[in-house]
Amino acid sequence: MSKAWTIHPNPILAQAEALMYGLGAGWLYRVHQDLHQGLQLPKLPADQVQATYPLSPLVKALDPQQEYSRAARLYRELLAGRDTVTPELYGDLVDAVTSKWAAEGRLKDNIQKRAAATYMLGVLESGRVSTAPASGLLDRPEDFLEGQEVRPIRFAQAKAGEYITSLSQRTRTQVKQVLYQHELSHGSPLELAQRLNDQFRVLNRDWRRIALTETSNNRAQGFLGSIPAGEQVEFSAALDCCDRCQAYHKTVWTVVSPEATDRDPDRHVWVGKTWQDGGAAISMHPHCRCRWMPVLRVRGDMRQDIEKRALDLLAAARNP
């Protein structure tokens, strides 16, 4: 199994990654299931579908013999009285299914809450523990935090919202292309089922990359935003890191304000710094699991109050 599909060795961070990944993966699976049933395609075995959605316990065999969903009913209505399937019919079906499961703003709201939770994990790693209600902190951070603390959270949420919107748009476009190509090539129903499964595997793999990378990035930004300017932090490379990250392992950097006019990417780090600025940054690349650590902190197990707070935040993000 590739690095993208390994579970984080830290149980709390594994939960955080699963929160971000699970929302998109669950949406993709439900769209996939509705399309498969709507098109009345032959059954795909559970193990083949599971390979498309690694680490997703909700997966089962795709079977058109189950009670038909809204997608199946729509497709039958679209076909009524028609001798041939047109591109518009396929397009209408894909649009209807993706819109149904997107639930418009709800999916976006949920991913934004989860992005806020991963950001707050970074704040906790700096040693700061807020007593604000977890659900309120994720929904209305401006009610509990200072203005300069809220701004990066809102940008993290905006990025997450754009990623989930892009997932919906890409799914519509790429699935339509598969259907159009299938109709042109006069493939069999089983071939279409397998091609759709292959396409959803690519979509899910790409979403997994985004989920892992944004979880790491949000944590890093939350951590740096909680460290006073002038203090030093250490780049701590993940155990399975790449050579590029390993070269920065245990290097020490000074935190500066993002507004500092004399910031030096070869010596400084700041909220919003990326690898494109030069020097060390997190994330350095997709799937990066490296982290910042304070130089002066006594190393050891996570404090019990911090661990409890982290679990409370993840629970609040999981249950909107």
Describe this structure in words.
The structure is a single chain. With 320 residues, this protein is mostly helical. It has two domains: 217 residues, no CATH class; 64 residues, no CATH class. Helix content is 57%, strand content 5%. The chain has ten helices and four strands; from the N terminus they run ααααααααβαβββα. Strands 3-2-1-4 form a four-stranded mixed β-sheet. The longest helix has 39 residues. The protein is elongated, with a radius of gyration of 22 Å. The model has no long low-confidence stretch (mean pLDDT 86).
Q: What sequence of helices (H) and strands (E) makes up the elements?
A: HHHHHHHHEHEEEH
Low-pLDDT stretches are none
Number of helices: 10
Gyration radius over CA: 22 Å
What is the SS-derived class?
A: mainly alpha
Intertermini distance: 32 Å
The counted number of beta strands is 4
What shape does the CA trace take?
elongated
Strand neighbour order, sheet with most strands? 3-2-1-4
Indicate the multimeric state.
single chain
Fraction in helix: 55-70%
Number of domains: 2
Mean of all residue-level pLDDT scores: 86
Measured by DSSP, the beta-strand proportion falls in under 5%
